[in-house]
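For the sake of transparency, this paper describes our internal protein records without simplification. The tokens are whole numbers drawn from a learned vocabulary of local backbone shapes. One such record is reproduced below, unchanged from the form in which we store it.

. . .
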Amino acid sequence: MVRATIDGEAHEFGEGLSILDAARSLGLDVPTLCHEERLRPNAVCRVCLVSLEGQPRPVPSCSTPLVEGMAITTTGPELEAARRGALRLLAASYPAGAVRRAPGKPLHRLFKRYGLERECRGSPDPSRLDAAHPYLHVDMSQCIECYRCVRICDELQGQFVWHVWFRGERTKVVAGDGGRLRDSDCVACGACVDTCPSGALEDHTVLAARWPSRWTRTTCPYCGVGCEMEVGTSRGKVVTVRPARGSAVGKGHLCSKGRYAWGWVASSERATRPMLREGADWRPVSWRKALAHVAARLAELKKRHGPDSLAVLGSARATNEDNYVAQKFARVVLGTHNVDCCARVCHAPSAAALSEMLGAGASTSSFDDLERARCILVCGANATENHPVVGARIKQAALRGAALIVVDPRRIELARYARLHLRPRPGTNIALLNAMASTILAEGLVAESFVRERVDGRPELEAFLGAWSPERAEGICGVPASQIREAARLYARARPAMSVHGLGMTEHSQGTEAVMCLVNLALLTGNLGVPGGGVNPLRGQNNVQGSAHMGCEPHHLTGYAAIENSRHRFEERWQAPLPASPGLDLMEMMDAARDGRLKALFAIGYDVLLTNPHAAATLAALRRLELVVVQDLFLTRTAREVATVFLPAGSAFEKDGTFMNAERRVQRVRAILPPPGKAKPDWQIVCELARAMGHSQGFAFTSAQQIWDEVRTVWPAGAGMSWARLEGAGLQWPCPSEGHPGTQLLHVGTFANGGRAALRRVDYRESPEQPDESFPMVLISGRSLYQFNAGTMTGRTPNNALRPRDLLDISPVDAGRIGLRDGEQAVVRSRHGETQLPVHLDDRVRSGEVFATFQTEEAFLNRVTGDGRDGRTNTPEYKLTAVRVEKLAGATSREP
């Protein structure tokens, strides 16, 4: 403890505080301008000055450490005069109109506090105005040169967009090379706007609307990072979003999607009434009629064809409560285990591998371990685009000295900061990882005591990996043997080391086994159950971890509990028998529909047709169904082409509940607006349908909290997560009791399975989907920074100005060989279909490979992807499709 006197009173404080920290902990209002709690102290504004006994001059409180025995004065005539003088200098050139327009700005509040509003005599300077960016408005005539924008871009986001030019009176802050912000490397995270105290940087939305009258804290509805945010509303409309300070995950940061891409909430395209298909047209009907129709059709099909002719898909965009009710509806009302969610097409391999080897199908550690790791292995995850806040944290860790290893065929942004960038041929991850494990064993880099005490199967794995030299792997994966050895040494020696992986690992024919190879590396090096270590899947959608964990999975119940091991517990709680026959996953549902065995599909928040691989086969299967019920925010492609009933759902902005992020953290989602029109929360629709089918018992919930309380009764590891406890920053499971703090780190001392872990021998098998003379290139599909998944939400926002359409990224060498110029339309053909895309010449893509996103329905990239599946989980092989790229006949150039 540190003892100090502040304003005449003695106090004790913790170690490592600044004087400003200590004063604020006492509730003292020491003014600041350049200071920001997310940033290192800078002490340029001189507004936070305090007096120290024995010091001749005041000192900046933000940058002066608190020391034992200090006697500090935070206010007084001399200090107030010094602060007023510093502010008067700023006011002399500051535009008066800005103060009137936004009195809540920190600078403007200080002007008022010190009576300086009338001393603002500056005028706007049109030459310093930049309004070209779709989200960020720049008016540097309001800049006070506190440099918070420069520092937050450097220290939090790591984008280095803002720069200080010149010195003295000529000093100015500029973006990029001094031109427009839109033309710089800005990623529209909004951190500079969020920190700016003067209004020099502001959101267009705030300038166009009145300042919010209400703020509501909730969780972002985009990726699985789970950043918390505060949504500002005025007159029943969202007008702005800002990051939640003190967020356990985002640390006061958001990405462009979370901060700005919320316009879809008020889109005129929102579907707001239940509808029934009549021929080619939709007919709006009442909820009573729509639900009666669905109930009657499901009952009829169940009677004629049996319960396993019916299936339900939960939603990774919906809450835990929505998904819990959906899977309970499938099992109790319909009587089938045919229930799944989009975890099937992304991280089912991660859950399967981690569960089988370690006993828990989820991340072994927390995002905070990124700051503890000495080595971070990023495999098949373009984190700065697909998980931008985590990507920024990885970037900052590398800048602080952590050894970063990137495994990705493309030269993604993180590769700039990596000690090593390994570029395996798509589909050869196992060869690479086996060779890394072989090197660790051959060179004596094993954590001997950890393996001896906690791991089985070393002799068998060592004998198997004797044949997997880096030279052999090089011939398969294309990564030089020297780089493989270097990566293995770095990962094994720089302990603790953690891995994060994405769909570049899982969406392959050996996706589950590739994750097992990552677990092998962690087991051999003792990087499990230790801070800064672990194996961590970066989940793609906001609640993909939660939707599967709630039981939207054919082989597991809530809590990822195996059906046969947990049958009695659920039957007793639900007062209903569970189905005896095994269930179908999503891809098996498509097979069954194609074969005529599946008759009805209830798809909640899932555009199956647009996002499933091999679109022609998916469409043919869906068209064979007798009943397709789509419950969603918009009339999706699935709804328009094959649905017979449409039910309008409320979004994450319009209901209460919880999400579960990629680090096992359950967080609150709060209603900000009422659902539009006749739309309702997903859980409410499902409960009303259950009651319409005669199942009032078990579906009489009246709130999301009631549903969550039932979840806790059937999921022992979540029993301690009461609704009240989740009001804070959320909790990570396991959390078995209300006195339990939650679990940041799994497998400490013992594995979740209660015993030892066994290493796995995984042999490489070449995917059947290989290039040949007819299809000589490999297509890799993925996401981009500004668009999310299939673009259902982001495609209805100004993000379209930043990423308007799908592009085909191709190397200049291949483009020249084909005769393609930047912006020209190309035809992409595979063995499964074709599409057209404008090309983008990109030297980050290797010759022989192309990359494309799947955000637009016009491109409909999944017309090209094929039938390949992971052998254990049926996850589609999106990351490897053999294609031929041709110039579109008669096409003209246009800039992408």
